[in-house]
Amino acid sequence: MTIAAGFVCEEGILICADTEYTSSGDKLEAAKIFPRSVDNIEFLFTGAGDRSLIAMTTDMICDAIEKENVALAGMSLSSRTEEVRRIITTQNQIVYSQYVNYANPPISETQMLIGFLSRDGDICEYRLLGVGSPTVERIDTYECIGAGASIGRWLAKTFYYESCPLDLIKVAALYIVQEAKANVPYCGGGTTIYTLKVKPENRRRMTLWDDESLAR
To answer: 93: how many CB neighbours lie within 10 A of its CB?
Structure first.
């Protein structure tokens, strides 16, 4: 089980998640946000559900983009952004048609959030995508997934607005994950935040492993 959330603002994208997962009844700690990069494209992947499926989908998407790297580099920024989205959609459909639909025993429902930012000199474009079943949709504001999604969405709508600054989103993201961990079974562990920023600072990571560090 998971609480993970993604936010879009003028300064870029933020993705946050807890770090606890359950395996054979045991509660374990592990990262749930996976940063990747292919040349001038930065990615953040996170998911809720089957960990193996999330990892495989992440690898397949990155491998497919790597194979198209030369073609992507020759595209305009807007064309590259749409091509990356097409590749993500195609690979996700392959995962579901070849693996999920025939899994025995059935694979638990899996959702993902994928943020990516593509640069061309001093300009960039970025997208946050929500992946559920074989569908991929663009998210223009925010989305929460996992067992803590309901409480996350309820809290997010109380603070989020169109020009919401990234610093405010960071504070709200911390609060959302903490509330999910406090009130939703199987959400727990630490809190991890990554950002993809329009200004060329690329990924920034902050991990808070317990409530004590959050209070500092």
So the answer is: 14
* Cα 63 to Cα 50: distance, rounded to the nearest angstrom: 20
CATH at 167? 3.60.20.10
Cα–Cα distance between 28 and 157 in angstroms, integer?
30
CA distance 124 to 203: 14
What is the length of the chain?
Answer: 216
Digit-coded pLDDT (tens) for 118-171: 998 889 999 999 998 788 999 999 999 999 999 999 999 999 998 999 999 999
Nearest to 117 by CA among 49, 181, 195: 195
Per the structure block, which two tokens stand in for 192? Answer: 């991890």
As for how many domains the chain has, the answer is 1
Q: The domain containing residue 134 runs over which residues?
A: 3-214
pTM value is 0.90
Cα-flanking dihedrals φ and ψ of residue 210, to 5°? -155, 175
